[in-house]
Amino acid sequence: MRYARAALAALGLAAIGYAVVGAAGDRDVVPARHAGFLATVLVLHDGVLLPAIIAVGVLVHFLVPPPYRATVQSALLATAAVTVVALPLVLGYGRIADNPSALPRDYAYGLLTVLAVVWLAAAVALLVRAARRR
Amino acid sequence: MLRAPFRRLIDPALPTPPDAFRRGPFRAGVFRSALRSERLTSQLGLWLGIAFGTCFLTGLISHLIQHPPGWFWWPSRPVWLYRATQGIHVATGLATVPLLGAKLWSVYPRLFTWPPARTVVHTLERGSVAVLVAAALFQVVTGILNVARWYTPMGFFFTTAHYWTAWLAIGALLLHIAVQLPVIRRGLADRAPEPATGGLSRRGLLATVAGSAVLITVATAGETVPALNAVSVLGPRRPDTGPQHLPVNTSARNAQVVAAATDPAYRLRISGPAGTRLLSLADLDALPQHTASLPIACVEGWSADAVWTGIRVADLLALVGVPDGNAQVLVESLQQHSRYASSILAPPHARDPLTLLARKLHGQPLALDHGYPLRLIAPNRPGVLQTKCVAALTAADR
């Protein structure tokens, strides 16, 4: 295991070095913007998004009794994941007037449809659980 | 293992900050979820490693096809191979969202380790984790933005940024696995009974992550899997929507080729060992016409089947002294000032009888947006290399 770890670490450092040297030598790369975007996604995730998700988790802990909590947590997790993927589509800044084949759907409707499926499934699971407990 | 005195010499301890600074999330016992465990993190990490490995390899294939080094060889068959690798690249990246989110949540308390920096090596190791997390988030976020064609927030050229950050992410990932390997092995082997959480169990969380990934895939993969088109309500494309029922990435107006493409004086220039020929549209239509069913497979992950009719590139090359299309061919567009204004057709594609300069799509004259008067369509190539509004073919000496 010791040699495997050393080999993995050496490979990893080589790849990191290749990335840094390659990006530095690529005229298409704007180092400040690239590094700025790396730092921005890190800070927004660790400093805003994840704390917000944990805050919602705390709320669920206090508001939802244990037998129902897991289902609500599952539905919230699926909601968050689907929303992250869908949000740029819903905002639709990628649409251009002379190319109707780019982003051709109504993505707000699409997102609501997916979330409706998630929460309908959650509601059924909660009702079944409630019925069994009686 | 290194002896303690020697270890202290090469990895000196750093001072611990005063306890007065240990506030907020740095306090002990702030993060209380009983769901977090080495086993959970190891399992999520294993899945995430597989997902990142898949994205890295499929992305590397796409990069090498577009910027082939001397040693690289890419076949023209099977015709669907690039469609599959790039479809998997984008679908895996989107499905990674819940997985990456859960993994980072499971290790979030470690961000507030106390003391923050024990030794020099400890500090470097934490720095490499920050690089890994930043690079992983960068890849997923820029990928999602690019699929949604929302370039403004990026402020840089997506393709090269995504490529170099992929090397950063995979390197930092290998380093992270090297550091954590004993913990990963312990976590995966752990069979101890798990504490009650009052909510989701470890298995429940893993099932939710997997279920969310499936949901995202079903909701988007219709852009490349025709059977899912009806249910993919979040697909960034519809394979049947666009001019002549086929999507396009750049319109003719946007590419500023309308005047040149509709000029009656248009001639296709073909150059090879036997000289140069200029062919009018009437000359081209007098040559043997062939029909091929080939997908357009975009780097953005969408793809669509289409039926193309036109002249075999191998037949055109024969007119200028290239037997059997056995040459590397420069394909130039009427479009100016674009990265994708020309492409290199490697010998396997140049000689493939399915490789056409198409005049028709689905039996109708090619629309301007699909590259009128003449566009390249070859099997097993990314859409950006299927040069539209072709102006010239130049066979390189072999």
Offer a quick outline of the entry.
Chain A is mainly α and 134 residues long. Chain A has helices at 2-24, 31-63, 66-91, 107-133. In chain B, 41% of the residues lie in helices and 14% in strands.
Report on this structure.
- The complex is a heterodimer of chains A (134) and B (398).
- Helix content of chain A is 81%, strand content 0%.
- Chain A is built from four helices and no strands.
- Chain A is extended, with a radius of gyration of 22 Å.
- Chain A starts with a helix and ends with a helix.
- The model of chain A has no long low-confidence stretch (mean pLDDT 96).
- Chain B has two domains: 12-191 and 198-228, Fumarate Reductase Cytochrome B subunit; 245-395, Oxidoreductase, molybdopterin-binding domain (Sulfite Oxidase, Chain A, domain 2).
- Helix content of chain B is 41%, strand content 14%.
- Chain B has a five-stranded mixed beta sheet with strand order 2-1-10-5-6. In chain B, strands 3, 4, 7, 8 and 9 form a five-stranded antiparallel beta sheet that branches.
- In chain B, helix 2 (38-66) packs antiparallel against helix 5 (158-189).
- The longest helix of chain B is centred in the middle third of the chain and has 32 residues, at 158-189.
- The mean pLDDT of chain B is 95.
- Chains A and B meet through helix 1, helix 2, helix 3 and helix 4 of A and helix 3, helix 4, helix 5 and helix 6 of B.
